[in-house]
Amino acid sequence: MTCIIDKPLLFFSAISVVTHFSEKVPSCDQERQNALNEAQQSSREAIIIPDCGSGGLYKPVQCHQYTGYCWCVLVDTGRPIPGTSTLYKTPECDEDARSHTADVEDPFHDRPLQGCPEGKKGEFITSLLDALTTDMVQAINSPAPSGGG
After folding, report:
1. Quick check: keyword Signal in the entry (predicted)?
2. pLDDT digits (tens, 9 = 90+) for 132-145
3. Containing H/E element for 87?
4. Whose CA is closest to 49, among 28, 67, 68?
């Protein structure tokens, strides 16, 4: 079944999505297995394979082996922490960085995603966040545009 969205959701806060779906975000072990399966079926170097710690948590430093970039993540969700990306060196990361679900009010908490059953809604949002994360890493890895300024 395909989820249909009647209004663009691209500009909503990723924090609110992670907050609302944090209990549905797959563990690191699940995401790692999915990435390994995808890497076997595809030769795309853009696939990021998470590095997992114990209990399904992410290690605080994640790296993309193909590009040499590393960045800090929230250990409970694996989501990147902005401004922590480094090239060919390991960033200093907070080993206990977690999402703060109680600190952020979710404006979309009661908003239904029309045409999308609850299980598919969680899968869609998780997939969207993964795609945005991949886009962010690719943007970081792209050379800066040159020009006068």
Report:
1. no
2. 887 777 777 666 55
3. strand 86-87
4. 28
